Amino acid sequence: MKEFIRVMKALSDPNRVKILKMLSQRQLCVCEVQAGLGLAQPTVSKHLKILEDAGLVQKTKEGLWVNYRLSDGEASPYAATLLGNLKHWLNDDPEIRALLKQVPQLDRDTICSRQ
């Protein structure tokens, strides 16, 4: 039951749902998620950690970059089921639609050169 509650709590925050929708497009680093959502870096990192702990996202290190992507669902059947459904949910929401249009233009090199 704890695993189920962890996944559901992770999905209870709108920004975490937005992050999952962004990651359904492609893998992203923290700065790309930050730019897309307009949130502070520590806030984005906290959200990503909660999603990772719930088995919804995975991270890989590539040099100085830490890339996040949707989990393969191997760690949790609850995460796998919800991620599979989330691909089809909320696509007609105007806020999600606008966010997903931004994702292809998010470029870590451009974003980090501005900071």
TrEMBL record:
One of its GO terms (molecular function) is DNA-binding transcription factor activity. CDD domains: HTH_ARSR (cd00090). Residues 1-90 form the HTH arsR-type domain. It comes from the Bacteria. NCBIfam families: HTH_metalloreg. PANTHER family: ARSENICAL RESISTANCE OPERON REPRESSOR, TRANSCRIPTIONAL REGULATOR, ARSR FAMILY. This is Transcriptional regulator, ArsR family. It comes from Desulfacinum hydrothermale DSM 13146.
